[in-house]
Amino acid sequence: MKYYSTNNKQNTVGLKQAVLKSLPADKGLYMPERIGVLDPSFIDGMRRLTFQDIAFSVAQCILGDDIDDETLRGIINRSINFDAPVHHLTDTISTLELWHGPSLAFKDFGARFMAELMSYLVKDDKEQLSILVATSGDTGGAVAAGFFNVPNIDVTILYPKGKVSPLQELQLTTWGGNIRAIEVDGTFDDCQALVKGAFLDDDINQKQNLSSANSINIARLIPQSFYYFEAYKQRQDTSKELVFAVPSGNFGNLTAGLLAKRMGLPVNRFLAATNSNNIVPHYLATTSYEPRPSVQTIANAMDVGRPSNFSRMMDLYDNDWSRIKADIEGYYYDDEETRFAVKYIHKTYDYVADPHGAIGFLAAHQYLQDHSALQAIFLETAHPAKFLPVMEPLLGDIDIPEKLSDLRSKEKKADSLSKEFVEFKSYLLS
Ligand SMILES: *Cc1c(COP(=O)(O)O)cnc(C)c1O
């Protein structure tokens, strides 16, 4: 099957190029030309299926032409090897916990699946594939865990020295093997500039087969559709229609939900829930799209002022505001409201939600006040222990899962570089 660029539908490539090159030259984003639709009887029968069985059928809707069944099953069984449980808070509000993977954030779904898919796509190539990724925190940990020990691929992670949390740093720097970390004496933007420079450098490209684990890669989006089906399967009341509240930054998660709906999942509506970076809620309320520099909030994984997947959302609705508006409602909350929600959820339901999930809860709660015949599931996108400096002043001590606390006994291994490109270049070529 072909993948087209959202900037020009005539500009198409095959799966391998869409995944390994990540971005079309015209700076659009790749979209699948066709999205398969699942039979209603499949959806009604999901309660008898495992998450992996469901994921396999959903993946076939897009990848079925390019990947044989046995290979696709293998990719799913190795990458989606943890649960996505729904936890009920009230009769009508539940949360989908997406933090049961190795790095404790939903980004594990995309990163692990992409790692397995890339490994399959390069299996007959003679050259080793080298992934370069710059991270400000969460993405690097998920990518490292996803690509660790994947054959024929090595990963170089660049992070800004002293600007990621101590636990996040250990999630990047304790792997060894095919994963190496570089602490750059600079900012996240400097790290990104080094990665970009490498992609544009002839000497490096002649010697190495480079690829990126960028968040706009279509391979990261596809597996995020799986858990919307898994959540629907676990909904508490089969007589009520379902809305999903999605805490959003770059809108990959929400776009994956829209794909799930295209594949036949009965979703009444999606709630686009943001922090003060309310570009998309503003668009939905006014028809006017006004990207702007992001502002810092306590839900910092959603501090995005120019949401990269917006062009995919527009593409799915042929740029028609009224059609988008029929499927998506926008909500946004400031830090004070977010802190209130974290405390409220804890006090009222004895549940610890992280700041991103708490924003999803607020949207779900607000929407149900006007739509009492519905039920809502909000996505809990990361484990609260990843945000101790925000959580502990609100709730006191937070339980730290072993996956995080075990890291404290491991040794950090990182190379140090300045932000000068010449130095990075000779490092890559040596
Ligand atoms: C990345 C991230 C988000 C935002 O997801 P998008 O797909 O970019 O909208 C939300 N919460 C957490 C914890 C994240 O790491």
Query: Which CATH architecture of the domain at 83-102 and 219-400 is right?
Result: 3-Layer(aba) Sandwich
Strand content: 15-25%
Would you tell me which CATH topology of the domain at 83-102 and 219-400 applies?
A: Rossmann fold
| N-C termini distance | 39 Å
Main sheet summary: 6 strands, mixed
Number of helices: 19
| Overall helicity | 40-55%
- Please state how the strands of the largest beta sheet are arranged side by side: 4-5-13-10-11-12
Q: Name the overall outline.
A: globular
The average pLDDT value, as a whole number, equals 94
- Number of strand elements: 14
**Classification by helices and strands:** alpha/beta
Radius of gyration: 21 Å
Low-confidence runs:
none
CATH level 1 class label of the domain at 83-102 and 219-400: Alpha Beta
Task: Please describe what this structure looks like.
With 430 residues, the protein is an alpha/beta fold. The protein has a domain of 202 residues: 3-Layer(aba) Sandwich (Rossmann fold). It contains 19 helices and 14 strands. The strands form three sheets. The chain has a six-stranded mixed β-sheet with strand order 4-5-13-10-11-12, sandwiched between helices. A five-stranded parallel β-sheet has the order 9-6-7-8-14. Helix 11 links the parallel strand 10 and strand 11. It is globular, with a radius of gyration of 21 Å. The two termini are 39 Å apart. The model has no long low-confidence stretch (mean pLDDT 94).
